[in-house]
Protein backbone atom coordinates (compact mmCIF):
# COMPACT_ATOMS: atom_id res chain seq x y z
CA UNK A 1 0.00 0.00 0.00
CA UNK A 2 2.87 2.35 0.81
CA UNK A 3 4.11 4.34 -2.10
CA UNK A 4 7.36 4.97 -0.27
CA UNK A 5 10.38 2.70 -0.35
CA UNK A 6 11.06 2.33 3.37
CA UNK A 7 13.50 0.53 5.63
CA UNK A 8 13.30 0.53 9.42
CA UNK A 9 15.26 3.28 11.13
CA UNK A 10 17.99 1.58 13.10
CA UNK A 11 20.85 3.12 14.97
CA UNK A 12 23.84 0.78 15.28
CA UNK A 13 23.80 -1.02 18.61
CA UNK A 14 20.44 0.42 19.60
CA UNK A 15 17.72 -2.20 19.68
CA UNK A 16 14.49 -1.08 18.09
CA UNK A 17 12.63 -0.35 21.32
CA UNK A 18 9.34 1.48 21.23
CA UNK A 19 8.81 4.28 21.87
CA UNK A 20 11.88 5.76 20.23
CA UNK A 21 12.91 8.70 22.43
CA UNK A 22 14.73 11.71 21.03
CA UNK A 23 15.52 14.58 23.36
CA UNK A 24 17.70 17.63 23.70
CA UNK A 25 17.44 21.39 23.73
CA UNK A 26 15.45 23.39 21.24
CA UNK A 27 18.75 25.12 20.46
CA UNK A 28 22.38 24.41 21.16
CA UNK A 29 23.26 27.68 22.92
CA UNK A 30 26.73 27.14 24.31
CA UNK A 31 29.10 24.21 24.41
CA UNK A 32 28.57 23.93 28.18
CA UNK A 33 24.75 23.92 27.99
CA UNK A 34 24.80 21.39 25.14
CA UNK A 35 27.17 19.03 26.93
CA UNK A 36 25.50 19.41 30.32
CA UNK A 37 22.04 18.68 28.91
CA UNK A 38 23.37 15.73 26.93
CA UNK A 39 25.09 14.21 29.98
CA UNK A 40 21.93 14.46 32.08
CA UNK A 41 19.92 12.89 29.27
CA UNK A 42 22.42 10.09 28.78
CA UNK A 43 22.23 9.42 32.52
CA UNK A 44 18.48 8.79 32.29
CA UNK A 45 18.92 6.47 29.32
CA UNK A 46 18.16 8.73 26.35
CA UNK A 47 20.07 7.50 23.31
CA UNK A 48 19.24 10.03 20.61
CA UNK A 49 20.10 13.68 21.13
CA UNK A 50 18.58 16.60 19.26
CA UNK A 51 19.65 20.24 19.18
CA UNK A 52 18.79 23.06 16.79
CA UNK A 53 21.81 24.76 15.25
CA UNK A 54 20.03 26.79 12.60
CA UNK A 55 16.74 28.13 13.96
CA UNK A 56 13.98 29.36 11.65
CA UNK A 57 12.47 32.18 13.69
CA UNK A 58 9.15 33.84 13.06
CA UNK A 59 10.54 37.34 13.49
CA UNK A 60 14.06 38.56 12.71
CA UNK A 61 16.10 39.51 15.71
CA UNK A 62 15.22 36.44 17.76
CA UNK A 63 18.02 33.96 18.47
CA UNK A 64 18.68 32.30 15.12
CA UNK A 65 20.92 29.51 16.33
CA UNK A 66 24.69 29.40 16.73
CA UNK A 67 25.22 27.93 13.26
CA UNK A 68 28.04 25.65 12.19
CA UNK A 69 30.19 26.41 15.26
CA UNK A 70 27.73 24.32 17.27
CA UNK A 71 28.28 21.16 15.25
CA UNK A 72 31.59 20.25 16.96
CA UNK A 73 29.70 20.52 20.29
CA UNK A 74 27.34 17.82 19.08
CA UNK A 75 30.30 15.76 17.95
CA UNK A 76 31.59 16.01 21.51
CA UNK A 77 28.19 14.89 22.79
CA UNK A 78 28.51 11.83 20.59
CA UNK A 79 32.06 11.07 21.71
CA UNK A 80 31.51 11.70 25.40
CA UNK A 81 28.06 10.16 25.91
CA UNK A 82 27.77 7.64 23.08
CA UNK A 83 24.43 9.18 22.09
CA UNK A 84 23.38 9.51 18.47
CA UNK A 85 23.00 13.14 17.46
CA UNK A 86 20.86 15.07 15.01
CA UNK A 87 20.01 18.59 13.88
CA UNK A 88 17.40 20.34 11.78
CA UNK A 89 18.38 21.02 8.18
CA UNK A 90 16.70 23.48 5.86
CA UNK A 91 19.23 24.08 3.07
CA UNK A 92 21.84 22.08 1.15
CA UNK A 93 24.55 23.90 3.11
CA UNK A 94 23.01 22.63 6.37
CA UNK A 95 23.00 19.07 5.02
CA UNK A 96 26.65 19.21 3.94
CA UNK A 97 27.78 20.68 7.26
CA UNK A 98 25.67 18.25 9.31
CA UNK A 99 27.07 15.25 7.46
CA UNK A 100 30.61 16.59 7.54
CA UNK A 101 30.38 16.83 11.33
CA UNK A 102 29.12 13.27 11.70
CA UNK A 103 25.43 13.82 12.50
CA UNK A 104 23.61 10.50 12.79
CA UNK A 105 20.24 11.84 11.68
CA UNK A 106 18.64 15.04 10.49
CA UNK A 107 15.14 16.40 10.51
CA UNK A 108 13.28 18.77 8.22
CA UNK A 109 11.43 21.46 10.17
CA UNK A 110 7.79 22.43 9.85
CA UNK A 111 8.46 25.69 8.02
CA UNK A 112 10.71 23.91 5.55
CA UNK A 113 8.35 21.03 4.80
CA UNK A 114 5.73 23.62 3.85
CA UNK A 115 8.00 24.71 0.99
CA UNK A 116 8.53 22.21 -1.84
CA UNK A 117 11.51 24.14 -3.27
CA UNK A 118 13.31 23.99 0.07
CA UNK A 119 12.44 20.31 0.59
CA UNK A 120 13.72 19.48 -2.90
CA UNK A 121 16.96 21.32 -2.18
CA UNK A 122 17.42 19.29 1.02
CA UNK A 123 16.48 16.09 -0.82
CA UNK A 124 19.03 16.75 -3.57
CA UNK A 125 21.73 17.38 -0.98
CA UNK A 126 20.88 14.08 0.73
CA UNK A 127 21.31 12.03 -2.47
CA UNK A 128 23.72 9.15 -2.00
CA UNK A 129 23.67 9.33 1.83
CA UNK A 130 22.40 6.62 4.12
CA UNK A 131 21.11 8.63 7.05
CA UNK A 132 17.76 8.57 8.87
CA UNK A 133 15.63 11.60 8.02
CA UNK A 134 12.63 12.79 10.03
CA UNK A 135 10.13 15.03 8.29
CA UNK A 136 7.97 17.29 10.42
CA UNK A 137 4.46 18.11 9.30
CA UNK A 138 4.17 21.44 7.47
CA UNK A 139 2.98 24.32 9.66
CA UNK A 140 -0.36 24.32 7.85
CA UNK A 141 -2.72 21.35 8.11
CA UNK A 142 -2.08 19.94 4.65
CA UNK A 143 -1.56 16.18 4.55
CA UNK A 144 -0.69 16.17 0.83
CA UNK A 145 2.11 18.67 1.43
CA UNK A 146 3.46 16.49 4.25
CA UNK A 147 3.33 13.37 2.08
CA UNK A 148 4.88 15.36 -0.78
CA UNK A 149 7.83 16.30 1.42
CA UNK A 150 8.29 12.65 2.45
CA UNK A 151 8.13 11.60 -1.20
CA UNK A 152 10.76 14.15 -2.20
CA UNK A 153 13.18 12.90 0.48
CA UNK A 154 12.40 9.27 -0.39
CA UNK A 155 12.86 10.09 -4.07
CA UNK A 156 16.44 11.08 -3.25
CA UNK A 157 17.07 7.51 -2.08
CA UNK A 158 16.54 8.06 1.67
CA UNK A 159 14.74 4.95 2.90
CA UNK A 160 15.20 5.38 6.66
CA UNK A 161 12.41 7.84 6.91
CA UNK A 162 9.97 8.87 9.66
CA UNK A 163 7.36 11.56 10.11
CA UNK A 164 7.20 13.92 13.07
CA UNK A 165 3.81 15.23 14.10
CA UNK A 166 4.34 18.66 15.72
CA UNK A 167 0.85 20.08 15.35
CA UNK A 168 -0.54 22.75 13.06
CA UNK A 169 -0.46 26.49 13.30
CA UNK A 170 -3.82 28.14 13.92
CA UNK A 171 -4.98 31.69 14.38
CA UNK A 172 -7.73 30.59 16.77
CA UNK A 173 -7.08 30.79 20.47
CA UNK A 174 -6.34 27.32 21.74
CA UNK A 175 -4.70 25.68 24.71
CA UNK A 176 -2.07 24.37 22.30
CA UNK A 177 0.69 26.27 20.56
CA UNK A 178 0.08 24.12 17.50
CA UNK A 179 -3.19 22.30 17.23
CA UNK A 180 -2.65 18.53 17.17
CA UNK A 181 -5.46 17.70 14.72
CA UNK A 182 -4.77 14.02 15.46
CA UNK A 183 -6.90 12.99 12.50
CA UNK A 184 -4.11 14.16 10.17
CA UNK A 185 -1.33 11.87 11.48
CA UNK A 186 -3.93 9.10 11.77
CA UNK A 187 -4.79 9.54 8.12
CA UNK A 188 -1.06 9.65 7.29
CA UNK A 189 -0.71 6.29 9.02
CA UNK A 190 -3.66 4.92 7.06
CA UNK A 191 -2.08 6.06 3.81
CA UNK A 192 1.49 4.98 4.68
CA UNK A 193 1.17 2.20 7.26
CA UNK A 194 4.90 1.35 7.27
CA UNK A 195 6.06 4.88 7.96
CA UNK A 196 7.02 5.43 11.61
CA UNK A 197 5.39 8.48 13.18
CA UNK A 198 7.02 10.31 16.08
CA UNK A 199 5.13 12.80 18.20
CA UNK A 200 6.55 16.18 19.19
CA UNK A 201 4.55 17.18 22.29
CA UNK A 202 6.88 20.14 22.93
CA UNK A 203 5.86 22.04 19.81
CA UNK A 204 2.24 20.89 19.98
CA UNK A 205 1.80 21.99 23.60
CA UNK A 206 4.08 24.99 23.73
CA UNK A 207 3.85 24.69 27.51
CA UNK A 208 5.71 22.39 29.89
CA UNK A 209 2.51 21.45 31.71
CA UNK A 210 1.00 19.89 28.60
CA UNK A 211 3.92 17.58 27.76
CA UNK A 212 2.96 14.62 29.96
CA UNK A 213 -0.63 14.38 28.73
CA UNK A 214 0.40 14.82 25.10
CA UNK A 215 3.02 12.06 25.41
CA UNK A 216 0.36 9.75 26.82
CA UNK A 217 -2.06 10.68 24.08
CA UNK A 218 0.54 9.88 21.43
CA UNK A 219 1.24 6.52 23.07
CA UNK A 220 -2.49 5.76 23.22
CA UNK A 221 -2.56 6.35 19.49
CA UNK A 222 0.39 3.98 19.06
CA UNK A 223 2.84 6.55 17.79
CA UNK A 224 6.30 5.07 17.33
CA UNK A 225 8.25 7.59 19.36
CA UNK A 226 8.55 10.97 21.02
CA UNK A 227 10.80 13.94 20.40
CA UNK A 228 10.84 16.14 23.48
CA UNK A 229 12.76 19.34 24.09
CA UNK A 230 14.86 19.39 27.24
CA UNK A 231 17.24 21.82 28.86
CA UNK A 232 19.22 21.89 32.10
CA UNK A 233 17.57 25.20 32.91
CA UNK A 234 14.41 25.49 30.78
CA UNK A 235 13.28 28.94 31.98
CA UNK A 236 16.60 30.39 30.79
CA UNK A 237 16.50 28.75 27.33
CA UNK A 238 17.25 31.07 24.41
CA UNK A 239 14.37 29.64 22.38
CA UNK A 240 11.11 27.89 23.28
CA UNK A 241 11.72 28.43 27.00
CA UNK A 242 8.12 27.78 28.02
CA UNK A 243 7.96 24.30 26.53
CA UNK A 244 11.29 22.79 27.54
CA UNK A 245 11.64 20.47 30.51
CA UNK A 246 14.57 19.31 32.60
CA UNK A 247 15.99 15.84 31.98
CA UNK A 248 14.76 14.91 35.48
CA UNK A 249 11.20 15.85 34.55
CA UNK A 250 11.57 13.95 31.29
CA UNK A 251 12.48 10.85 33.27
CA UNK A 252 9.38 11.27 35.44
CA UNK A 253 7.16 11.62 32.38
CA UNK A 254 8.69 8.61 30.64
CA UNK A 255 8.49 6.48 33.79
CA UNK A 256 4.79 7.23 34.13
CA UNK A 257 3.88 6.57 30.51
CA UNK A 258 1.32 3.82 30.17
CA UNK A 259 1.97 1.65 27.15
CA UNK A 260 -1.17 -0.14 26.18
CA UNK A 261 0.47 -3.36 25.18
CA UNK A 262 3.69 -4.98 26.27
CA UNK A 263 4.15 -5.97 22.65
CA UNK A 264 3.26 -2.54 21.40
CA UNK A 265 5.69 -2.78 18.50
CA UNK A 266 3.90 -5.88 17.23
CA UNK A 267 0.37 -4.61 17.71
CA UNK A 268 -1.25 -3.02 14.71
CA UNK A 269 -2.87 0.27 15.55
CA UNK A 270 -6.42 -0.38 16.51
CA UNK A 271 -8.67 1.45 14.12
CA UNK A 272 -11.61 1.67 16.51
CA UNK A 273 -9.40 3.22 19.21
CA UNK A 274 -8.07 5.72 16.71
CA UNK A 275 -11.56 6.68 15.60
CA UNK A 276 -12.69 7.07 19.21
CA UNK A 277 -9.69 9.25 19.92
CA UNK A 278 -10.66 11.37 16.96
CA UNK A 279 -14.18 11.73 18.34
CA UNK A 280 -12.73 12.82 21.69
CA UNK A 281 -10.62 15.43 19.94
CA UNK A 282 -13.51 16.75 17.86
CA UNK A 283 -15.75 16.98 20.94
CA UNK A 284 -13.02 18.91 22.68
CA UNK A 285 -12.91 21.32 19.76
CA UNK A 286 -16.69 21.68 19.94
CA UNK A 287 -16.47 22.47 23.65
CA UNK A 288 -13.74 25.07 23.08
CA UNK A 289 -15.84 26.67 20.36
CA UNK A 290 -18.95 26.71 22.55
CA UNK A 291 -16.99 28.26 25.39
CA UNK A 292 -15.76 31.00 23.07
CA UNK A 293 -19.26 31.55 21.68
CA UNK A 294 -20.69 32.06 25.17
CA UNK A 295 -17.89 34.47 25.94
CA UNK A 296 -18.84 36.53 22.87
CA UNK A 297 -22.54 36.36 23.87
CA UNK A 298 -21.66 37.86 27.23
CA UNK A 299 -19.72 40.64 25.53
CA UNK A 300 -22.81 41.34 23.41
CA UNK A 301 -24.86 41.39 26.64
CA UNK A 302 -22.58 44.07 28.06
CA UNK A 303 -22.79 46.09 24.85
CA UNK A 304 -26.60 45.88 24.83
CA UNK A 305 -26.72 46.96 28.46
CA UNK A 306 -24.40 49.95 27.83
CA UNK A 307 -26.41 51.00 24.78
CA UNK A 308 -29.84 50.27 26.13
CA UNK A 309 -30.72 47.64 23.56
CA UNK A 310 -33.15 44.80 24.31
CA UNK A 311 -31.73 41.30 24.49
CA UNK A 312 -34.00 39.47 22.11
CA UNK A 313 -34.06 40.79 18.60
CA UNK A 314 -36.21 38.47 16.59
CA UNK A 315 -35.05 39.56 13.14
CA UNK A 316 -31.46 38.73 13.99
CA UNK A 317 -32.62 35.40 15.45
CA UNK A 318 -34.50 34.48 12.26
CA UNK A 319 -31.50 35.43 10.15
CA UNK A 320 -29.16 33.31 12.26
CA UNK A 321 -31.40 30.27 12.09
CA UNK A 322 -31.84 30.54 8.34
CA UNK A 323 -28.14 31.07 7.74
CA UNK A 324 -27.12 28.13 9.94
CA UNK A 325 -29.70 25.85 8.30
CA UNK A 326 -28.44 26.78 4.82
CA UNK A 327 -24.85 26.21 5.84
CA UNK A 328 -25.78 22.89 7.42
CA UNK A 329 -27.54 21.77 4.28
CA UNK A 330 -24.61 22.68 2.08
CA UNK A 331 -22.49 20.42 4.31
CA UNK A 332 -24.92 17.54 4.07
CA UNK A 333 -26.11 17.92 7.68
CA UNK A 334 -29.73 17.33 8.62
CA UNK A 335 -31.51 20.67 8.97
CA UNK A 336 -33.80 19.60 11.86
CA UNK A 337 -30.84 18.35 13.82
CA UNK A 338 -28.97 21.62 13.27
CA UNK A 339 -32.06 23.70 14.07
CA UNK A 340 -32.45 22.00 17.42
CA UNK A 341 -28.77 22.45 18.27
CA UNK A 342 -28.83 26.15 17.40
CA UNK A 343 -32.08 26.70 19.29
CA UNK A 344 -30.42 25.29 22.39
CA UNK A 345 -27.26 27.33 21.83
CA UNK A 346 -29.31 30.46 21.29
CA UNK A 347 -31.31 29.85 24.44
CA UNK A 348 -28.13 29.54 26.48
CA UNK A 349 -26.70 32.69 24.84
CA UNK A 350 -29.79 34.65 25.78
CA UNK A 351 -29.67 33.47 29.36
CA UNK A 352 -25.96 34.36 29.55
CA UNK A 353 -26.78 37.83 28.21
CA UNK A 354 -29.51 38.39 30.77
CA UNK A 355 -27.23 37.21 33.55
CA UNK A 356 -24.67 39.79 32.46
CA UNK A 357 -27.30 42.55 32.24
CA UNK A 358 -28.73 41.69 35.64
CA UNK A 359 -25.29 41.78 37.17
CA UNK A 360 -24.66 45.21 35.61
CA UNK A 361 -28.02 46.40 36.98
CA UNK A 362 -27.09 45.49 40.55
C1 LIG B 1 12.36 22.54 16.60
O1 LIG B 1 12.26 21.31 16.57
O2 LIG B 1 13.01 23.17 17.44
C2 LIG B 1 11.57 23.32 15.61
C3 LIG B 1 11.97 24.50 15.16
O3 LIG B 1 10.43 22.72 15.34
P1 LIG B 1 9.28 23.03 14.24
O4 LIG B 1 9.95 22.92 12.92
O5 LIG B 1 8.34 21.91 14.55
O6 LIG B 1 8.71 24.36 14.57
MN1 LIG C 1 11.86 24.39 19.45
Summary tags:
single chain, 362 residues, alpha/beta, TIM Barrel, Chorismate Mutase Domain, subunit A, 2 domains, eight-stranded parallel beta barrel, 8 strands, binds phosphoenolpyruvate, binds manganese (II) ion
Describe this structure in words.
- It is built from 13 helices and eight strands.
- By secondary structure, the protein is an alpha/beta fold.
- It has two domains: 20-261, Alpha-Beta Barrel (TIM Barrel), CATH 3.20.20; 269-361, Chorismate mutase (Chorismate Mutase Domain, subunit A), CATH 1.20.59.
- Helix 1 runs parallel beside helix 2 (71-81).
- It is elongated and about 75 Å long.
- The model is unreliable at 262-268 (pLDDT under 50).
- Bound molecules: phosphoenolpyruvate (PEP) and manganese (II) ion.
- Phosphoenolpyruvate is lined by residues 26, 52, 88, 109-111, 136, 166, 203.
User: How many domain modules?
Assistant: 2
CATH architecture level-2 label of the largest domain = Alpha-Beta Barrel
Strand content: 5-15%
CATH class of the largest domain: Alpha Beta
Shape: elongated
Percent of residues in helices comes to 40-55%
- CATH topology-level name of the largest domain: TIM Barrel
Count of separate DSSP helical elements: 13
User: Within the largest sheet, what's the order of strands?
Assistant: 1-2-3-4-5-6-7-8
CATH superfamily of the largest domain: Aldolase class I
Low-confidence stretches: 262-268
Query: Got a strand count?
Result: 8
Amino acid sequence: MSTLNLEPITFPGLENKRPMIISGPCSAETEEQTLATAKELAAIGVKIFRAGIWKPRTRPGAFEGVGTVGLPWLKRVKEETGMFVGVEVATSHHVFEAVKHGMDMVWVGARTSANPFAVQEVADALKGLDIPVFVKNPVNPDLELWIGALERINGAGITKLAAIHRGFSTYDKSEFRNHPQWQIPIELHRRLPNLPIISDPSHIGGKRDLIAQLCQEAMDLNFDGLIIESHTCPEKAWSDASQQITPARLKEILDRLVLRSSKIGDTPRNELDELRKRIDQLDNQLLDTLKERMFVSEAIGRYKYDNNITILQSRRYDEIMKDRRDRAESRGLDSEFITSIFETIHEESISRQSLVMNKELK
